[in-house]
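User: ok so my PI wants both of these folded by tonight, can you help

Assistant: No problem, let's get them done. Here's the first:
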Amino acid sequence: DEYCFHNGKTRSESSRQMVSVAGCFVPFAVCVVSRYPYYNALKDCLSCLLTQLKLCQDFEVDNHIKEFAAKLSLIPSPPPGPLHLVFNMEPLQIVFPSRVDPESPIIDLDLHLPLLCFRPETVLQVLTCMLTEQRMVFFSCDWALLTLVAECFLVYLHPLHWQHTFVPILSGQMLDFVMAPTSFLMGCHLDHFEEVSKEADGLVLINIDNGSITCSTSSGDGMDIPDVPLLAAQTFIQSIQSLQLHQELDLAHCSSSTDLNEGQGRRRAWQQKLNGQIQQVTLQLLVDIFREVKNHLNYEHRVFNSEEFLKTRAAGDHEFYKQVLDTYMFHSFLKARLSRRMDAFAQMELSTQSEEDRINGMLISPRRLTVEKMALQRSSLQKAAQRRMVVSMPDLQDITVVEVQPRKSSLRQVDAVSCKGCSRAEDVAPKSIYTFEIPEVHFPLVTQCVQTYYADFVDLLSKAMSFLGPDNSVLLACYFYLRGFIHLVQGKLLYALLDFQNLYKTDIRIFPADLVKRTVALMSAPELAQVERTPELKRLIKEVVDKPREVAKADDHVKNFELPKKHMQLDDFVKRVQESGIVKDTHIIHRLFDALTVENSGHQKQIDPETFRDFYNCWKEAEVEAQEVSLPSSVMEHLDKNECVYKLSSSVKTNHGVGKIAMTQKRLFLLTEGRPGYVEISTFRNIEEVRSTTVAFLLLRIPTLKIKMVSKKEVFEANLKTECDLWQLMVKEMWAGKKLADDHKDPQYIQQALTNVLLMDAVVGTLQSSNAIYAASKLSYFDKMKNENPTTLSVPITTSEALKHKINPSAGETSPQAIDVLLYTPVGILTQQKKTADAHPTLWCALSEGKVVVIDASSRTDHQHCFIVGASKLNCMVMAEQSQVWIGSEDSVIYIINVHSMSCNKQLTDHRTSVVDLIVQDGEKTPSEVYSCSRDGMVLAWNVSTLRVTSRFQLPGHTLTSARLHQGRLWCCTGNSIVVVTTNGFLRQELKIVESFYNKSTSFLGFQLIPEEEQLWAASAEYSEVYIWSLQDLTQPPQRVPLQDCTEVSCMIRVKRQIWVGGKGLSQGQLKGKVYVINTERKTVDKELVAHTDTVTTLCSAEDRYVLSGSGGEEGKIAIWKVE
């Protein structure tokens, strides 16, 4: 009755005045239908409508509702980003929030509502039911809570998605829906609880009102909901308990609000902050549960090894993972991981990854428990035992497992407060939020008023854009999106396309490609003709409309690893081994194939399923044995924290007593028996000789391994018996790998040697025949190299002194990839991603087919990120400002990378052919202008802040390859000449190659300018020389600096008073990658550096202290050189 009105008065008031008037009151409802879940905003709108209806006459109700509906229909939905839309609907200011990014949901809910209704343990159980895709029904006597609480739980799962039926409210006539046999999530009034509980079996019944969760079963056995993994559950509970869920407590220190909208604004700000914290807590829960899934994925063949993943889980968690791994939700999650999608899960997983896990992700040898992790797990096991949270097991002290041991305690018994390993909810710094107030809608709602509203909308947007700083491109993109949309509904299609074109190069993430295609389809012939006359719109249509849509990958499925059932030839064997996760490198797998087929007498070698199964089992058994190694504390004190035990012999007699020989990546040591002790045998670097012999014992000759050290006179002897030949192979391979790693300053040699050693062990265990050792010797790669070609592997003294380190950006790939471009960026560019003190210089590596790998240049081992820009070769990179790296591609696009988010949201598409060079003024830390050159001779000047072309010119009849900016003029290498032009394109000088070379078919590859010496240095494709011209008179013949034994020049840079030239040349009778260091004063080659087995393709300077060289696809490594 409170909300029933007649002539603006309540029913009771009107009835007293009109007793004699007969009438009836018919209830009606106003339902707002939206494509987006604006729960709070639309609730506020309806509340405002209700206030207005109280004051109106009965004949005015329809008009008010029509005006209300019209007003809502004219409000656009904000694009993804930081811009929220605000409009006035008396007496409230209504806010329509935007989603954070295109992949995130719109959050217009109070996400803490379930946390007020349920204990954290119950919240975990509900999430478990959703992750295992149960048949779930929410109950409440408050209809509104059913939808709100269910929607909150769906948000908790992001970026995972509930893919089954979702009906938040069921009427009494629809209760038979709960009999459906498939997974669903539904909601009912609490009055139906008993009825639903009795009629349907196997339902999870969640009572919102009393915070309980039960299961409907006729047998009465109770719930069978598996527990969330213990450590993840403890962290979640601790974080939830640290949240401040009551606004009154959070705002107790603030003054009372005397303005309704101000109070709403405070509440909204508090809710947004709390929502962000809750999303971080639930996302961290998902990361803690699924973090190690990536260790069991094969990206090349899209395979997930679920069996091996389950083996790494604690026994008490098996039931949980078995149920989760069999769901549609997890299958979609795997698809996203295998596609390397950088969603919220991937970003948090990367940001919370430990340094050890980052390094392990780059290792090509199998992972094992480090000494540090052994100590931590032993400590956690002891604490867990004290809390009685594990089930006792026989010989527990001798077993080390990956996670906490099986438990029987339920989540309700977790002592969250005492969990020292748990962290508080992260206090997330709220991202900057901007609001844009929508203009008033004038009534009556006729065409003229609507057009006036649209015109006011466009004017306000244009005004806001004019006041916007150039560095806020994310907000600018939102304005472009909204203005383009308003132009579209106005019918101004050309203006709309211009805004969308600006949006395309400002933030491609929110670019509405389908909307642009529909717009072009609606355009008339005169409008299309005008588009053709506008170069920017013509390029947009070519890029978005005319370009065929990429066909979805046919192999978008996910395979579960299975052992082969048919005989395998080489190609199939390579694929199967890669799928298994044992090793990825194709060359290593080829040698493994040779080893396993030594007994194959047929003309066509192949491996039968039984042999593969035996090999796979041997490999996995060795992994388990290594995981179960438990070293005493007295032994761990002698080892480095990152050392792992990779191989342990059986108990043998040695000249230092009886014990087991242990092999790590650094040394051999004896683990003595009885009272466990440590006896150092030798580091691999200290070994001088390894040989196998026999010693007499009674009438027997016992095979013995002898190891002679450089620093010791005593020879270590071990009676290894049947293991002797295998250990000899393994120790010699590790010894050779360590020598190569030291000589070439490349730690990956020792990692690859470890892989070879473990494969030898598995091959011997598989074959178990007289040919087993011979087969294993096929994998002795580095030892053979050392014995057969000792001179070719040696590093010249000059090279060794200058070489500091080598990096393999292709680590973990199936084969090396050519390094096309290198860029070094100094300290401080990652300050938004990390704390300022943790920011490090960064190395950007452009590999084949648009792949970019970002490496921490200080540690040289830490991959920060890896992403794909396009699918073509990348030609050039430059740092345009502290937050942007520009990359020019063979596909004519300039990709702009945000160094804080490591994402590519901007593309410049003004070039028509390959972008070959990007130029900024030398010495400028934050350049305001970037010049880009394409192969067809087009040069564009870009304003870095606005991303607009400030000038352009065409070099007629020339093919550009590179350019330099010197004294306000551009020096352009065009192959057959070097031309000097102004920044407006006017020709000032030209150096033609025909005037200096007899071979007129040759061309310039690159050049460098030395202003202080007034010299131009250049290299040619056909000559193994560097040529030097005087800038005062380019017509004079050049001086020549010969490059000894050089067969190809590919790149050159200037560092201090040196010119570094990269290419290929002869060294010790073989073609190898070479770097020539030329002194610019003496004009002589000071050094010839040889550290690559393939052509040096690119050179890069790191603050003039180091030079980095990248090699071609046969090697695909980066060498770091010291500059003198």
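One down. Here's the second:
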Amino acid sequence: MLRWIRQQLGFDPPHQSDTRTVYVANRFPQNGHYIPQRFADNRIISSKYTVWNFVPKNMFEQFRRIANFYFLIIFLVQLMIDTPTSPITSGLPLFFVITVTAIKQGYEDWLRHKADNEVNGAPVFVVRSGSLVQTRSKNIRVGDIVRVAKDETFPVDLVLLSSDRADGTCHITTASLDGETNLKTHFSVPETSVCQSVSQLEALQAVVECQQPEADLYRFVGRITVIQHGEEIVRPLGPENLLLRGARLKNTKEIFGVAVYTGMESKMALNYKCKSQKRSAVEKSMNTFLIIYLVILLFEAILSTILKYAWQAEEKWNEPFYNQKTEQERNSSPILKFISDFLAFLVLYNFIIPISLYVTVEMQKFLGSFFIGWDLDLYHEESDQKAQVNTSDLNEELGQVEYVFTDKTGTLTENEMHFRECSIKGTKYREVNGKLLPEGMTDDSPDGSVAHLIGDEVLFLKAVSLCHTVQISYDQPDLPLGASDPFSHVNGFSSNHMEYYASSPDEKALVEATKRIGVAFTGSRGETMEINTFGKLEKYKLLHLLEFDANRRRMSVILQTPSGGTVLFTKGAESAILPFATSGEIEKTRLHVDEFALKGLRTLVVACRHFSPEEYMDVDKRLTAARTALQQREEKLQEAFDFIERDLQLLGATAVEDKLQDKVQETIEALRLAGIKVWVLTGDKHETAVSVSLSCGHFHRTMNILELLQQRSDNECAEQLRRLARRIKEDHVIQHGLVVDGASLSLALREHEKLFMEVCKNCSAVLCCRMAPLQKAKVVRLLKTSPEKPITLAIGDGANDVSMIQEAHVGIGIMGKEGRQAVRNSDYAIARFKFLAKLLLVHGHFYYIRIATLVQYFFYKTLYDSVYLTLYNICFTSLPILVYSLFEQLVHPHVLQSKPCLYRDIRKNSLLSFRTFLYWTVLGFCHAFIFFFGSYILMGEDTTLMGNGQMFGNWTFGTLVFTVMVITVTLKIALETHFWTWMHHFVTWGSIAFYFIFSLFYGGIIWPFLHTQDMYFVFVQLLSSGSAWFAIIIIVIICLSPDVFKKVLYRHLQPTSTQKSQQSLSAPPAQALSCMESLCCYQQGQSGCSRLASLLDQMTGHCKAGASNCHTSSRCNRWAGHQGAMIMDLHESPWSFGVVN
């Protein structure tokens, strides 16, 4: 019970040993000396809270906020000493803020729990008590024997025991872990591979000893001890024996494995970064502004305390006749009295710190996040998936992104390759309806492609269908009676349903293409490779496989032909094949390869070499010697490969299209125009990654590509970085791109971070390949912590992307084909990469400008009877700014997408700069000054303004000031509004009306539950005075007029790009809205200030008196009519309508 409680609170004890011992099927030793090791259960946890720690952990996080902690202190002070205001004025808003925030964060975490429960509750089969038992994934224990069927993902990290294959092998894909889609072969030890039934596994006596869990996906050290007939047989275990959680079983009917790492100790989970509380740049700015206001508050309190004692220095004011001190007050300590007075002033002035700011921000973020899910432009119809918000705290951060880190496989691409064209002996061919036709010919042969193909073409197709590492799965699908397999008689031969699994998507696409054309690879049996050439079965003996490597950039096979000859087929990059070709149409093929590359196609060049018996004997001898060498094996193999792969006969080239996701190129270009740099971080091979970067527009053909690859030492890496830095300075190229691999990156980050960052920042695009998951997170952290502190965004679809998604300021998961790990651990989830453009350029833009104005406005409007103090920020002035922060649009969403450069206007937290903050603060102080002294000048000297001759008292004067304040701050946000809807009108004028109605009821009735009622009949008396109404109107106009003139002049003299777009949107220059109209156009197009707009336009010379284009009301009508089509673009809100001013 104690251990369970510790686990719930996050204090699981660490392992006590460097190794772990796993007894297969949990068959523990039957002696009293064995103490079982304790292991984690198999639950995956992406949530932040539990039932037990939610309250303390959430309270701790909330009171880390300066405003919340401050108001808690104020509330406690009000409880302890006699203060001018009731504790309710601080306690009630604080309780409301804390409660609303806790509910919101609890709801979001509940959604994470729900997603975790789906994974943890997935059905699995384990061997227990001699039978196969179905249980839930979370119930798997270390030592359990788990059965996994074809196409299922592994629920834990397993050591492979056996498979349905006689040799005990299986094939898996790890695309969700490292982004590689190639098929990997894993092995079981011979002693366990024969255990293919439940009964045999139940009788198996074996012990696995291995290292404790670590995050490295490619490292596993262990051994298995199998007891057979009383004898212990020990076999080593390595990465090839370990099946990782998240990988998927392919081309194998079923496997059995023993669980060694479970739950959060699995390698996939260890590559997750610890989930931390992300805070947006806006929230950090809010905390900075709050500190400034706290300093102002302390200064006011200290100054007021000093002035109080200065005022009381005279005896007549120290103890006036109407306020006699008690004996206790006369004898109290001067220091304690000073502190008490200071705290009293602190409480009196504490309302300059807007407690309701946080609750309004929380409500704005929570309600605003629904707009992302409701946006039909972010809905993917094919998969029936809409955008998802997991964390609404970062909405505005979407408008501040400077770097995007993206995965490649499944994020930029669909991970689907399609054969498009080829070049054979200098002639270009394309596939049309399963036929290989020369360029320019049409599909007019009814007999298929056989009649068109001669010896060279057939040899090329044979080379493509044999030079690979493709494997085949034969599955006979369940077909209804009388139905037939559509693939059973393709091109004249019979086969079951064949599914190809390849080491790369290119190979799979090429082999599938040759099958469609008529040369089908039908499988490998031992050392024999079989192809069916237009219905004729041919068998080739595989003599040697020359594996692909990054240095050679090619792979080859040496085969014995059916006629007994020996031939080498090789394929690879053009630079790796053409220099070694001595015959064939070399120049024509080179030209065709360049043409294919310009189309964004992935190219491979194919060649062959025929060996005489003597030549082959020499080749075989060299290869055997190199492969068995104990010293310098890699160098000797390289020499042997170079000797063999020469004097080649060029056959042709292939062109394969890596199917990108829809609109990837346009999205990357839009992000680049918006000033956002895109980095691609992938675990894939260098050549594949570069090819995709070129095809998706991440790298341009005119870009100077720099490489930091295969660095083996710190000095070598540093020297290469210096060369790249010099090259960037010397080359007069507009854009550079950088390619770096994982090994070189590790060296660069170890000692040369500064130099590496200098090179990266001078590059327009960066591509990192062969990256481990934690390396991706390190790269993101490197940019985050650089001196510029840029805002980063990471996007990916697999478990290998989780660490960088959690590390970045904003993490986005793609709902792809590689599981849901990325989605569960992300802040936002979308179905396709193309949706990122609207998410940032539109939603991010809107969220940022809304919340920036909201924050500034609250400090601006931030006193009197305790009820009014409590309701001022909560009721009287909260709804207009809340509606503004949900629906405001400076320009139409279509404009933001079509003009990505507008995103630059809001970068670097520009709307919350210190200059802007200072402007709003000074404006607030000026308005407060005008409120008080304007009311005093207009009303203070006249003491008989009441109709009955009654004098104005302090409460009446204070009510006048408060009324002017409520009306002014409400109209101020109305001036800031560009997008008017019926909701804006309702809350703006409704808030003012509610204040009047509330004041009439509150002061017009004697409330029995109130101890004192100083406001009784005060508001009614105030409204009965015509002079009071006159004063209200005059003061409001005086306060708002300078702000209106400032906006007009700035828009005319120094307009931003956004303001220019407002003026020119969908209207000729002569018909564009004037600056004044953009402030005052209402829903039906009537301009509330048309005469003033015309007058200002004439004064500034923008239009002549009497000119037709100065008729603002008609122009507003035209504008409103045009905007009828924009109704549903109020951020996809189904109940709102309006126009963008």
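The radius of gyration is 37 Å. The chain has a mean pLDDT of 77. Good luck tonight!
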